[in-house]
């Protein structure tokens, strides 16, 4: 579709530009852990658009054409890259919080970058495991092929496990990052305001201003995250608790596709926020 193509082009181009910039200036800002996390987030956004969005839109409009192996990988990719993106944003807030609270005029350099990257990747992998293990590929004929996640054959058991799984995804991918960012943001704001009142040195005041600009970037990144992903999670809860919602009905199908496209817009907007700050 045209909307998904626009999101794909802007998202891939913008995030690639961010990564290229990080590589090009690897001897300066990219040595800082915070800017390394920005590069990681850009990478996750690229993979979300490349694999999650494109395969999902294909699966919506035609029968699954990619076979059994890619069915398992596809479901795992969605959870892995969503978790990686959300956890990276959480680490961005925590890293900047650490810097502001510890010392307003210094960033730790390259130490810990690899460890943080590995921790994020491993955590995202754990989140993706259920989606990979319980993926089902069912082929009745060439025109009737389905790729989906099913925990149990018994519908009641499957429903209970799906509710638990959905709630865990909601907490990990949405609620937890939001709570961390809001909490650290207000703590950083109080700390920087205190620096502004007590420090008369122009150097420190300049650093405070720089830190506030980065705080704005974190805030806008997460506001965009909330705006884009709220419809997706809300629709999921509505579908679960309202059994009259049928994905086979064209209107409901269009609403679902629209909610997911709005969620993917988040990955395309990030580079523009980075560029401003």
From TrEMBL:
Question: What Pfam families does the entry give?
Answer: 7tm_1
**One GO CC term of this entry?**
plasma membrane
Q: How does it sit in the membrane?
A: Multi-pass membrane protein
In alphabetical order, the GO MF annotations are: G protein-coupled receptor activity
- SUPFAM superfamilies linked: Family A G protein-coupled receptor-like
Q: Which UniProt keywords apply?
A: G-protein coupled receptor, Membrane, Receptor, Transducer, Transmembrane, Transmembrane helix
Please indicate if the UniProt record lists Transmembrane helix as a keyword.
yes
According to its UniProt record, where is this protein located?
Membrane
Transmembrane annotation, as ranges:
6-25, 34-53, 73-94, 114-134, 171-190, 217-241
List residues of the G-protein coupled receptors family 1 profile domain: 14-274
Q: Give the GO biological process terms.
A: cellular response to hormone stimulus; G protein-coupled receptor signaling pathway
Principal cellular location given in the protein's record: membrane
Name of protein: G-protein coupled receptors family 1 profile domain-containing protein
Species annotation:
Trichoplax adhaerens
